[in-house]
Amino acid sequence: MKTAIFYGSSLGNTQFVAEKLHQRLPHADCLQVNELMPSQIEQYDNIILGTSTWGVGNLQDDFELFVDLLLSLDMSGKNFALFGLGDQHTYPDTFCNGMGKLYYLLNDKGWHVTGFTSIDGYDFSESEAVIDDQFVGLALDEDNEPDLTDSRLDGWTASLNF
Ligand SMILES: Cc1cc2nc3c(=O)[nH]c(=O)nc-3n(C[C@H](O)[C@H](O)[C@H](O)COP(=O)(O)O)c2cc1C
Q1: Mutate to test the pocket of ligand 1, among 85, 94, 123 (most ligand atoms within 8 A of CB)
Q2: Domains observed in the chain
Q3: Rounded distance, CA 36 to CA 58, Å?
Q4: What is the pLDDT of residues 116-151, one digit of tens each?
Q5: pLDDT by residue (tens digit) across 27-62?
Q6: 145 CA to middle of ligand 1, Å?
Q7: How far is CA 52 from CA 17, 38, 49, 81, in A?
Q8: How far is the C-alpha of 79 from the C-alpha of 69, rounded, in Å?
Q9: By alpha-carbon position, which residue is closest to atom 29 of ligand 1?
Q10: Percent composition of the chain: helix, strand, coil (DSSP 3-state, to 5)
């Protein structure tokens, strides 16, 4: 089974976290979404997508183009997992919405998304990344809780089986 970490990062936070994730999944390939060709995307069985949230609840810029490419491919039968970076104190009503937007795009295609996590321990009001009191992936906050990122990544990667 081939695993990839694909990320988009405007100021480097998501890239920093993607590299930490890569250390925990050294068999995976780790690439920025704006570097990818269709043939590169299709070769993987397990795909982890990492986006930050920009504007008020939008996907990171590089993802806006990447999702059009991804959704044009047949990715049925693949396993997806999501991680999202946000700032729960400055943007408590749109915390990690970018991750939520990704989830709904994949889910509308009927593609399999795994790696949901508990919202316990976070401090925000609303998020499109929450369904039935769970995040649709791993939510991380390098702006306010960088000290929790390593332990959150440890628990999540152990649960993923990628
Ligand atoms: C202008 C601006 C808008 C943002 N909007 C949101 C938002 O709506 N929701 C959120 O959770 N975080 C938001 N953030 C926080 C970023 O997602 C966060 O800083 C993230 O770590 C950036 O990661 P990157 O450097 O990989 O792009 C915003 C940050 C800025 C500067």
Answers
A1: 85
A2: 3-157 (3.40.50.360)
A3: 21
A4: 999 999 999 999 999 999 999 999 999 999 999 999
A5: 999 999 999 999 999 999 999 999 999 999 999 999
A6: 14
A7: 11, 22, 10, 15
A8: 17
A9: 54
A10: 35, 25, 40
